[in-house]
Amino acid sequence: MRRLAQTALLALIGAGLLHTALFTNLYLRYVKEGLRPVLIASGIVLLLLAAVNAVLDLRRSEDPHESHDEHDHAHGHDHSTAPKVAWLLALPALSLLLYAPPALGAYTAAHSNGKPVATTPKERFPALPATSPLPLTLTGFTQRVQQDPTLAIKGRQVQLTGFVTPAGAGGGWYLTRIIFTCCAADSQTVKVRVHGPDAPPANTWLAVTGTWHPAGRLGTKTAEAALDIKESHPIAQPVNAYTDDLPLTPS
By three-state DSSP, how is residue 17 classified? Predict the structure, then answer.
């Protein structure tokens, strides 16, 4: 790989980062929203490095007396090239510009352990609003089912959102969210078992309304985070797909 190609590769990677972070929401497939400024800064730095390399190369070509390449060749050391394997760096950059890798989904969720749900002190469970159906996160629903001593979730219609993950050999399916702590590499999964109609296609995003499916003793760890469906309908993947927050509608 010649120096000109190295410079072009730096520019390509920088442009890919800026395109993803500035002009699309695709970066949210790979990192948390708070890392967007870091991606933008990284893209700018790479473009600046490419520009500096281009200027230095231009000056070398215009002044043969300062050509380090000729000096290196004379002594048998050519530092103007890099290993050919470096071209592989162009693939992720091109993918960001032309075809973004798919988001994490049902395959990842089916092969990962569920995210441990943090224990909530009893006094931290406020009274639930009278809204029906009551919008909850998957984590919030699980905490109410397994930890709330007031049993406030009993008989309440709730609305949960997530994507479909098949339950495997036993049949059935889960409503799922994948949560990024920092990025896709440290993702964790939270699931709620669904009882009712046959599973829609994997990775379908749904808003599901139903009531807790009695299994185990409500308010204790023996209770299963499960839902008897009353109705469901497909939704667009929310902007905040990799958090366990109430969904934000794509703009």
Answer: helix
Residues facing 30 on adjacent strands:
none
The CA-to-CA distance between both ends of the chain, in Å, stands at: 42
State which H helix or E strand residue 231 sits in: strand 226-234
Contact between residue 91 and residue 98 where contact means Cβ atoms under 8 Å apart: no
- The strand pairing partners of 26, in sequence order, are none
Hey, how many other C-beta atoms are within 10 angstroms of the C-beta on 217?
Answer: 11
The set of residues, in sequence order, having a beta carbon less than 8 Å from that of 54 and lying 6+ positions away, is 7
For residues 112 and 1, give the distance between their C-alpha atoms in angstroms, rounded to a whole number: 40
Amino acid, res. 154: K
Cite the beta strand spans of 149-216 per DSSP E. 158-166, 173-179, 188-195, 205-212
Sign of the CA dihedral with 196 first, then 245, 138, and 168 last: positive
The tens digit of pLDDT for each residue in 66-89 reads 554 444 444 444 555 556 666 676
